[in-house]
Amino acid sequence: MSTTLHNDYKERIVPALEKEFGYTTVMQVPKLKKIVINQGLGAATQDKKLIENAINELTAITGQKAVATLSRKDISNFKLRKKMPIGVMVTLRRDKMYEFLERLIRVALPRIRDFKGIEGKLDGRGNYTLGITEQIIFPEINIDAINKLMGMNITFVTSANTDEEGFALLKHFGLPFKNK
Question: What pTM was estimated for this model as a whole?
């Protein structure tokens, strides 16, 4: 089952990008490879329940099981031991990725208070990371069941070679960037 955003990519975005950048073949057109959603939970060193709650919330938001990320080394100042769970992440590809992107653009981002668009700064290789301060913008989250407001980073990994190509791809997908 292909999603509407994936069909939109094939039918509308690919020809638009081919024309815009003068690609000679469809294979040169940048595409969205994956979306990685990551939550860093430094407070989880004290409260083990935070990781469980974050895994359940991220699983509900994405429709795919989230996994805990573990610390790599001991840091005594942060009361951190090696291999302690300190975050949660999920990597979306193919249909789940397009479904999540569609829900993010059409439902979640417009629910942000005083929303004026997102920053248009890419990483230099055509990838983009969006920081969200509250997980309650997603309709899958029950606000009454929230113990703690947690933010997350959503990274869009593209096959673009330059920031301009990556930016154009994400703009065509409908990400509401602030006007430069």
Answer: 0.76
